[in-house]
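Morning!

As promised:
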Amino acid sequence: MEFVSPEGLRLDGRRPTEMRQLRAEIGNVAKADGSAVFEMGNTKVIAAVYGPREVQNKSQQMSDQALVRCEYSMANFSTGDRMRKPKGDRRSTEISLVIRQTMEACILTHLMPRSQIDIFVQVLQADGGTRSACINAATLALQDAGIPMRDIVTSCSAGYLNSTPLLDLNYVEDSAGGPDVTVGLRLLSCGTYGYTLGPMD
Amino acid sequence: MGLPNASEDLSSEMEVDAFRRLFPLRYFERHLAESIRPDARSLSRARNTTISMGAVASADGSALAKIGSTTMLAAIKMEVMTPSLESPDEGCVSIDFHMPPICSPLVRPGRPAEAAPVVAKQLSDTISSSGMINLKELSLVGGKAAWMVYLDIYCLDADGALFDAALLSAVAAFSNLQIPTVSLDDGKIVMLPEEQKEENSEKEPVNKEKRKLTLGGIPFSLTCILHKNYILADPTSEEESIMETLVTVVLDSSNQLVSLYKPGGAVLAYTSAVQDCIALTRQRVKELHQILEEAISGMEID
């Protein structure tokens, strides 16, 4: 199947190095300490941050830093076919871990010992790049909550199809079977914070 | 802040926010005595309500309803299934209500909120008994194929009156529903994508004309709190946590009672209190009906 036409246009009319339309909003969830909605094309994700607050499970409390927890879940209607198990499956657990480790490295956890910071991310519409949208939304929500961070993390995915490197894959391109990578970058220190390679998302 | 009768307690010595946290009941009662609530609403007024249709582009029908800060996102996905033997020419509606941890600081991951299954049950009972959906309309091929309608409602912000907002979003999502076109392909039902309407004459859509559901009596609801002899309409989560007696009245658009729900609580309601709640609900139904009509006509203009 042709993902890049001879004129150099992708299936949705973008150029290979063109991103989808981005849209972000903060403060959507009144009850949360910080919240954000992030859209990358048709992928829409809402993130809410609660914290720093008291640790719920005292056995996990750390006396010198804050505990960061993250939960990723997809709404039943977010994908083309209705999902049966929106969280607790392996993919969601893995992505929760990835987001937690990414954000934990940027939060100044030593400033908030014996407390807990919860990051909840819910995918409302999934069209490829949900992992990236979640990291971006989580960053914005943490900023909205006023949690001290040493840096801003942003993320995007890229792949390689029809011998062309492509930026910001949508679902069709992602499931085409070519290699793809999601990169999380810390802005100020300009180092690649983390990356995952492989056929995911 | 000149608080009256401040001689017997600490209210004159502390700030308003501290008083609100430490003595919430007294704080509210001070307001109720003046027939007002902390957010400056009168006792019988509901919060600002908005509905936005088509919030989820990938769903067959969706709506986002907000009552004050309480936000509910409802989306409908339809699948084809074989109808059961007892009702071969009827489809099925499955309603699921979720409260993800983002909605409230009280919801913990791994431990579902107490309110979630209660509201879910109330919703499915209300929608099935109101007669809004005619299950026979969901039939495709009698005895062989019918629609299974999955309605998922996600609470994105829980600030009181969860059932009201959830019901409103469900009703709006059903009003927004566009049934996908399907055709019979070798005895199997196949979903047709929107663009293929002009080509493929063998793949004639089985249900080309029947794209929208006809909704019968549409249910609308109002939750009220009873406290001493006050009735507060449309409580916030703070009010719900302090004064725990709730009454939910569901009326349909012809003002007939669909359901009345009072799950215990410290205050026992006399007939007059129940009648007052129903009267408040009647008023609210008119407002909600108007808001829903505006939202639907707003979509049609596009």
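The longest strand of chain B covers residues 145-157.

Hope this helps with the figure draft.
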